[in-house]
């Protein structure tokens, strides 16, 4: 077995589902990095269940500013306990099956392999984060603490090795609309929260149309999208609903502040209040993850387009690239495997992409860190 596959098999064997502590996989990565003479630094925190999580930074030099960072998340989504390959990397038809094989342990194995084979003259970091799959929480902790500055970062996510230079953000809110319960035979005695929510949702549909005018051509679709995925209200068919809740999710293009949609929605609520004076509505905005965009003429993008022979693209989902930008970095997202194969039973990484990824990273390190 090649070295890269051995490392991937080791990583997949360690169950690092986000709900568990990632200490075990971090200890493994520390041992690997120390064997490569890297300096390791732990950034621990407790998650909201009191479970210890660690972001690990490994450096070629004892510095707090690096030229290049390779970033991979250590956690995975859960897996079906009946899937026997989940923690036992299995080869079939040129593919390696296992949870995390493409999202994102394959990238980590490629990064560790790439670092082994180059000498650097400028500082390089490997950054291994926690809790990416449950809201980029580890990366957000690092972005808050700013333990180092980064000039360029390559963030691992399955992109079939296409360099990705921009990503939409992700925002989520729960909207709680209050009404007044009453017997449905006497509607004048109460106020239906469901009718109120419906009127607000009409406004949101109009806002979704309005958002189409602010276009960013690099994306498909080229504008901020909005979704109401869940709605729940009322207690019985013959009672005016006292409460109605719905989720409001939007994916802003990186040129638009995440609060823009909220502002439009607040204006709509104000308009409604003019005719419905005791309209009461709470907005619990729980996520405001910004998108990211690196200019097409950035040295990093040009480098990766050259090395891969592929034109850079964009994605409509959130990645840790936005947090890396907070650390001062121009970012690109790339990794072996297909995002459509991630997060499901039968996740796999094609072996040739895994090996090719190590080569792409090796060349990137050579050009940026040992010119
Ligand atoms: Zn991922």
Descriptive account of the structure:
The protein is an alpha+beta fold. Helices cover about 30% and strands about 25% of the residues. The protein has helices at about 5-15, 25-35, 105-115, 135-145, 195-210, 260-275, 300-310, 320-325, 350-370; strands at about 40-45, 50-60, 65-75, 90, 95, 125-130, 150-155, 165, 170-180, 225, 230-235, 245-250, 280-290, 290-295, 315, 330-335, 350. The strands form 4 sheets. It has a 6-stranded mixed sheet with strand order 1-2-6-3-7-16, sandwiched between helices. Strands 9, 10, 11, 12 and 13 form a 5-stranded antiparallel sheet that branches. The protein has a 3-stranded antiparallel sheet with strand order 4-5-17. It is elongated and about 80 Å long. The mean pLDDT is about 95. The structure holds zinc ion (ZN).
SSE diagram, text form:
Layout lengths: L2 H11 L9 H13 L3 E8 L5 E8 L5 E9 L16 E3 L2 E3 L7 H12 L7 E6 L7 H9 L3 E8 L7 E4 L2 E9 L14 H19 L13 E3 L3 E3 L9 E9 L7 H17 L4 E10 L2 E2 L5 H10 L4 E3 L5 H6 L3 E5 L13 E3 H19 L2
Parallel strand pairs: 3-6, 3-7, 7-16, 8-15
Antiparallel strand pairs: 1-2, 2-6, 4-5, 5-17, 8-14, 9-12, 9-13, 10-12, 11-12
Helix pairs in contact: 1-3, 3-9, 5-6, 7-9
Zinc ion binds next to loops.
Name its key features.
alpha+beta, 9 helices, 31% helix, binds zinc ion, 17 strands, five-stranded antiparallel beta sheet, 371 residues
